[in-house]
Amino acid sequence: MKSLFENYKSTIVLLGSILLGGIVGAYMGPKAAIFQPVGDLFLNFLFMILVPLVFFSVTSAISNMGEMKRLGKILKNIVIVFTITSVIAAIVGIVGVLLFNPTKGLNPEMFSDIIASASSEGQEKVSLVQQLVNTVTVTDFKDLLSKSNMLQLIIMSMLFGVATAMAGEKARPIANFVQAGSEVMMKIVSLIMKFAPIGLGCYFAAVIGDLGPQILSGYARVFILYLILTAVYYFGFYTLYAYVAGGKDGIKIFWSKVVPPTVTALATCSSAASIPVNMDASKKMNVPEDIAETVIPLGANVHKDGSVIGGVLKVTFLFGLFGQDMTSISAILGILAVSFLVGAVMGAIPGGGLMGEMLIISVYGFSPEALPIIAVISTIIDAPATVLNSTTNTVCSMLVARLVEGKEWLKKHI
């Protein structure tokens, strides 16, 4: 019993801090905002190391890979795994709303104040081609040094790593430097995580204290449905994915290491802030370093199964509010496609769902005044959505390892 506690001590402490924070937040309500600075302090430490962590990890993984053929194989299988799991997540969401319609008995008048409070100032229109350019590039190098441009940073880090590998022995000092930098960054992560119980507990208390009234204001059915779907996907499909990746041993090692990333995502509501913890967990799951250091940062930006399920709920919520049919084959296929896209464009930072929400409104031609309605949904499902967005990538790293290294990959790295 004592050895069991020692093995899971950090996990038990983290869970306990989150539970205590939730109780305090629910009891104090908005007054729990006094804990916000302590939570922000922890979150800011994670954000401070995010840019160098991603740069060193991604660059090191690629520059020390040895051969470009392996990189190509990893990227190809990342695309396959991300696509399949996102489609499954969308199907789970659609089945959920068909079985338990969150808009049943909905009174549209309930949302009149939200619609009326929408800003009359329109968003600056950007062409699709220009939006793609802005998604993968920035106008200045200094803009890469921001957590708001993580995908662009990852792309540049990959290019830097490829160029270093292509330069061969001439660039060996650089390859050694970025590898050492990656090791140092992970040590910094371990130091910051010692503050996690206090930081996460305080942050979660403030979040619960702030969101309590919103959850009760007409969105309870959406919130309950999302929690159910989260539980089904998290416990059911993660177990399935882990089994596909490594059999019974895969299930065992996944569930023994996934709790800290889950708690971090739940408390911070940030896929970006969870990157360091997820990367550490993936390596402890015996995923090869080059795979973990490619899958985790990339997945935090372009693979968000929680946002996919959330996209389904947002679309169907608007369908119910405006009296549109969502049961036809064409409607279901449309929801599937749009929710898939929403999972790719939502940002990996707290409240970063504006682009996804604008996409929904644009595709279906809803009034821009409907934006605040689904923005509230983003807010109330933010915590469980981030859990799925973030932790899915840990089990996906196992699946990619299975595809890249073969059926016996887990035994090779134990």
Give a quick precis of the structure.
This protein has 414 residues and is an all-alpha fold. The chain contains 18 helices and no strands.
Textual characterization of the structure:
It is a single chain. The protein has helices spanning 2-28, 36-63, 68-99, 112-116, 128-136, 150-167, 172-192, 196-215, 220-257, 259-268, 275-284, 289-302, 305-321, 329-345, 354-364, 371-380, 382-405, 409-412. With 414 residues, the protein is an all-alpha fold. Helix 2 packs across helix 8 (196-215), helix 9 runs parallel beside helix 17 (382-405) and helix 11 (275-284) packs parallel to helix 17 (382-405).
Structure keywords:
414 residues, mainly alpha, 18 helices, globular
Helix content: over 70%
Number of strands: 0
Global morphology:
globular
What's the pLDDT, averaged over the residues? 81
Strand content: under 5%
Write the layout of secondary structure elements.
Elements: H1 2-28, H2 36-63, H3 68-99, H4 112-116, H5 128-136, H6 150-167, H7 172-192, H8 196-215, H9 220-257, H10 259-268, H11 275-284, H12 289-302, H13 305-321, H14 329-345, H15 354-364, H16 371-380, H17 382-405, H18 409-412
Helix pairs in contact: 1-8, 1-10, 2-6, 2-7, 2-8, 2-12, 3-9, 3-12, 3-13, 3-14, 3-17, 8-10, 9-13, 9-17, 10-17, 11-12, 11-17, 12-17, 13-14, 13-16, 13-17, 14-15
